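Help!! Second protein's tokens look totally different from the first
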Amino acid sequence: MSAPSALPMTEMGELQAWLRLLLTPGVGNDSARKLLAAFGSAPAIFEQSAAALRAIGSARLMQAIQTEPAELKTQLASTLAWLAAGADRCVATLGDAHYPAALLNIPDPPLMLFMLGSLVPRAETHVTLDSLSCLAMVGSRNPTPQGEVNARQFAQTFGAAGWCVVSGMALGVDGAAHDGALMGGGHTVAVVGTGLDRVYPKKHLNLAHRIAERGLIISEFPLGTPPLTANFPRRNRIISGLSHGTLVIEAALQSGSLITARLAAEQGKDVFAIPGSIHSPQSRGCHLLIKQGAKLVESAQDVLEELRLPLSFAAAEATTVDDMTPTEAEKTESPLLNALGFDAASLDALQARTGWPTAQLLAQLLALELSGEVARLPGGLFVRIASA
């Protein structure tokens, strides 16, 4: 359902029926799909007799279907006003022509999708979600500096190579992935856990506008839905479902990123993980995934080759740090970077490794911080930032 200035009565009635199905307490996706299979359409469900409904489900389900949700009229008015506000938005229902084909193959496809952005399907749209190859990128909301750099640079490479990056617009890795894809000139899709009439987190308001300009923001939740904790793990099946594979950048052992990876594996999709320091809690989830069979990746090219799409020469040029061989790079590398290695180190440890006086060491660390080669961590630790 696109966004004309006024929907015909038939379309308005259909939208109302779908919203009613979505909003009815006690009617989950499984029950809704059974009802749709039995009666053919959402409006037809609410025209059935008690006996016909009872033949499909329990008495409780029958009673729920026959009771109109109190918020239905308000929700319908809000949705119609939202649709009328621009041609960059639509509502796609299960089985609708605009519904993303990839989601029809997952075990629990959403009943409705609210979509906002330049990839909204309409007559003049040449590039749509179904025409793009998508890759999910997920990870920690509190990544290490290196993890954030990896997310942005990998996504930039994928965007330059023609892939659409799908993530959840959360803080940390998600935001860096969306930003990187846009930097690479690619498309990106954000699957969010709120209604599309609000942006969460608020810090990503500008990012949300940029995503809408060159991609899509998608939600299965009706307008007005606040950022409820339970909604974020739920949207993960959509992130993995839209994508050919899922890349986990950094993840703790108990994290939503591992949920997304598990869902991707259950959907028969490739799972990729970037290894990290054995001392970093943010790497343990990735290490667990690798132990369980996820593909270890060290570069964006590893992912693209596995997905049978080699990195174009132009993209490789854009994302190569420099033209030096590793041996040449090592010869010109700062002695302090060599001493730092790739694990976090304290000032005392660096002094012991270099033998430099405190003033010289601090001056060199500051210079490397300003050049983006070193980051300062809580607890007086320093960590090296490598190009992905």
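Here's the second one for comparison:
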Amino acid sequence: MKIILLDKVKNLGNAGDLTEASDGYARNFLFPRKLAIEATEENLAQWKEDQKEKKKKEAEDRAQAEELKKILEKEPVILKAKGGTTGKLFGAVTSKDLEKAVQNQLKVKLDRKKIELKENIKEVGVHTVEVRVYPEMTAKLRVDVQVEN
């Protein structure tokens, strides 16, 4: 029986997938728990409409991510931190510091969880940090760390 999944089902698929399931499994397990609906002509028409909207929204999100990537890669973010004369910082620059600096200098709201900082920056200089702007797209943010006077 062809079904449309309404939620993720282990070993069957994710929400929105059109898939096959045995009649008994669909009628006795999936339908009563509202995990799936039968793929009738009416439901298939609605599913196709939903798929078009999903693709359109995904294209818009990707375009916004491209725009954000251009903004982040355009110019470096300057961060001032307390440090010694040897080029070492007294503390460290964290993703929280980077989030604030990007918001103040580039006027872009950025979630710090998307900043992929492998380890905190502890030295003065220009560093490259990856920022996840879309699931398979990253931007390379240049961070210029300077000693605060």
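Reply: Different proteins will give different token patterns, so don't panic. The CA atoms of residues 27 and 114 lie 42 Å apart.
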